[in-house]
Amino acid sequence: MAKPVLIGVLGGMGPLATLDLLHKIIAATPAEKDQDHVPVVCWNVPQIADRQKALAGKGDSPLPQLLEGIEKLNRLDVSHIVIPCNTAHHWYHALVEVSHAPILHIADETITQILSMEAVPKKVGIIATQGTLSAGWYQKKLIAANIEVIFPTEGEMNRLFVAGCYAVKQNKLATAAQLLEELSASLVNRGAEKLLLACTEVPLALAYNNSPFLKKSIDPTEMLAQSCVNIWKDQKK
């Protein structure tokens, strides 16, 4: 008999992005009463070393704190684990080794859903940390599917993305929205049909002022939420 579904969220990266995932799981769930919703437990403890600084060689590794979070979720006997932080997936394989439950990879879940769209985009602009871009989780599979990928310039990464990302963490959403909208506009002006928001802070910024770029966006947080809902629905069949 399969283990009852209990989704474990390894969060805190950042804390608002974690809440965004929880909200999107609820929003995506067909429900008529409380009991119809996805069972979820969440480790939203943000005292985790900065992932971007660690990968740039300017800070401590977050792995010890990530492993602690996995251990907490193991104790709760979760059936699946999700991580609403793209950059944290650099330590994915180390976490899989100690997790008692399968860990869904945010990029894999997103790419699977992109390629199943009725109208698959031909050109995608990607907004992500340098660590996520360097890992290539998204663009390698997009390019293999004959989808052109448009990247921010180095200047845009420093002036718009990094500043916008940290503005979300500082709860300065108006500033974040202004910076990340400018970056979105640049990618669209260079031909992007869709924007892949491959940093979980970005949807929060664009949603703050209901950016028109949301209509052009693919949100991995939303894709991860849908995967959680699908797991729950499959058990209920």
Automatic annotation (TrEMBL):
One of its GO terms (molecular function) is amino-acid racemase activity. Keywords: Isomerase, Plasmid. Belongs to the aspartate/glutamate racemases family. This is Aspartate racemase. It comes from Zymomonas mobilis subsp. mobilis (strain ATCC 31821 / ZM4 / CP4).
